[in-house]
Amino acid sequence: MSIVVTNLTKVYEQQKAIDNISFTAHQGEILGFLGPNGAGKSTTMKILSCFIPQTSGTAEVAGFDVVKNPMEVRRQLGYLPEHNPLYLEMYVKESLGFIADLHKLQNKKQRIEEIIALTGLEQEQHKKLNALSKGFRQRVGIAQSLIHDPQVLILDEPTSGLDPAQLVGIRALIRELGKTKTIIFSTHIMQEAEQLCDRAVIINQGHLVCDETLPDLMKKYPQHTLEEIFLKLIQPIQK
């Protein structure tokens, strides 16, 4: 298992952002990490990527504990946050070289060429990032997260704000990557999750309310779309 989350809790002052959640994700699986705004998705992803510590519980990425072995986790993990952090004055190849240097890659030139081909950036590679469309900037963000060939990818709303043509390209890329890597994929578009994901983990108000494969979930709620199921599962929790 590439990701193991066990009884994970995060408390900010008096508020529990996530409350005792557990789930796993396997290699070759795209896990849809779903929930309404404020459910705790970003908090969980930040813990998994070693940006913030949990209050209690454990999280492992590729067999490494996020607290005990954060540098090993970072070596195994590619992370694209919701707000793609790009240096817009850099050129595409320059930005990929910068990230490759951070990872101390030995085969830097070859790897950059491979990633440019994989992410469909051949025609854009000599442009500045501020000259790219949002779709191509997202591709650069994914390319940066892939440059060190991580086992695990965390993609936080990677298709937000894209036009229909851009959506098709990014979804196809994610689907291809999901054949060999473990992907945690967060989105608010349930139709997209239904098309892409093998498993759905849904959280609401910091609580886990669903952890099912997509086929099992659809069998449990026959004649319902994933969007309809999602809306049923995120009804307010009675306290």
UniProtKB/TrEMBL annotation:
Record carries keyword rRNA processing: no
Q: What is this protein called?
A: ABC-type multidrug transport system, ATPase component
Indicate the family of this protein.
Belongs to the ABC transporter superfamily.
Q: Which GO terms describe its molecular function?
A: ATP binding; ATP hydrolysis activity
Pfam families xrefs: ABC_tran
Q: Which PROSITE patterns is this protein grouped with?
A: ABC_TRANSPORTER_2
SMART domains named in the record: AAA
Alphabetical UniProt keywords: ATP-binding, Nucleotide-binding, Transport
Signal sequence residues: none
- Specify the species: Arcticibacter svalbardensis MN12-7
Source species taxonomy: Bacteria, Pseudomonadati, Bacteroidota, Sphingobacteriia, Sphingobacteriales
* Domain spans labelled ABC transporter: 3-230
The keyword Secreted appears for this protein? no
Do you know which SUPFAM superfamilies this protein is assigned to? P-loop containing nucleoside triphosphate hydrolases (SSF52540)
Domain of life where this protein originates: Bacteria
